[in-house]
Amino acid sequence: MDHDAIVERLEKNWALYYDLVGRIKNEDAKTALLTLCDETKDRLAATPASTRTDFVGAYAGGLIQHSLTVLKLAKNLNKVFGANIDSDSLIITCLFHDIGKIGNANEDYYQENPSDWHRDRGMMYELNKELGKAHPTQRSLWWLNGSGCPLSEEEVYAIRASAM
After folding, report:
1. Do residues 41 and 27 make contact, with C-beta atoms less than 8 angstroms apart?
2. pTM summary value
């Protein structure tokens, strides 16, 4: 994919992601999450979802694409099974369950693999060894807590369950 197409995909996905966050009805959650999006935009919009091409989203913007896909699937399942899960909870848990994959406030979780040999075999990124051993899900909850986003007990469980 050429550079212009990549940029176009990143911008389109980011606009949809941000628009969906803006649809949250709980004003406290919406304000906190829009602020978090504004503060992390460049990193969040470009973060991959995984290290390898045989996993989902091992490319710039893969995390946003993955999160949008998770939300779409969750909305469909919610409808099919009549679960009546609140739309705010779906948006929050699906779009932010993996935000910890951006890393911490200073360090990215994923780093481009410097080895041509590894990249040729689909290992596009490696984990940043400078970060502690916290799981991305723990970091997701850290980001959400630090943003001031009020989470219900069920939302915390849903985000935690995404690691299983």
Report:
1. no
2. 0.95
